[in-house]
Amino acid sequence: MLSMTGFGREEFRNEHLEISAEIKAVNHRYLDITFHMPHFLLPIEDQLKKIIQNKMKRGKINVSIHISGTYTHRKQLKTDWDLVDQYVDHVKQLQTKYQLAGEISVEMISQFPDIFHIEEKEEINSDTETHVKKTLETAVTKVNQMRTTEGAELRKDLLMRTENILHNIKQLGERRKIVIIEYQERILERINSYLEDTPVSEDSRLYQEVALLAEKGDISEELTRIKSHIKQFQQIMEETDPIGRKLDFIVQELNRELNTIGSKSNDVWISEQIVYLKGEAEKMKEQIQNVE
Question: Containing domain of residue 98, as a range?
């Protein structure tokens, strides 16, 4: 079982390059990956995304990649041709105005200020790409280590709550038969009080109707289904695939059965137990929101 919450950071350094990859993961219904990185890494964004998709199946993943160094910059010499044209044009105007002799040479033009400038262009080469991917892979591994640790704690908590529910369900089952008998006796007492000196006999039609009425409050089917849900829940927790949605569905069904028992209950003790069990189910639901 994996949690969807985690953090991982990895750095790479050599004499030419510095890379840092940071990943923050929180719970989300689907896998949602957002990158914050230099624009020159955009050509390999899909490849970086696949590295994460191979290891993480659900969650909102924020990835920050920072990179600097000489490997990320390429220097280019640029000529301002518009400025050269202006220099040449003005030199020619001087020659004409003052009747000056001589040719405009390359040596002369090269001395004009500001016609050459150096631009640094950010780009990614194969070595840098390899280092970025490896750094990200390690960061993902660190995130999953944290997610595994937290997932183990979630599993322990959920398993404890399922055992608590099974224990209480067993007690409810033991109490069930007593409640039916007590409910039947209360109905008969009321009927007998109205009939005064003509008590209801066990072989009468009215007695049979009372027994059927008492049976309508029976919760044995709901208890059986709850046991089945809990067993299935515990089995799913052992699976290696993402299980969060499956567990969430089972807890919804568990709540449905508990609500049915609560509506049927005419016993104070059972009603109190249902309140407790619904509280346990709600805590399970909250925990499951963080399970991948």
Answer: 74-122
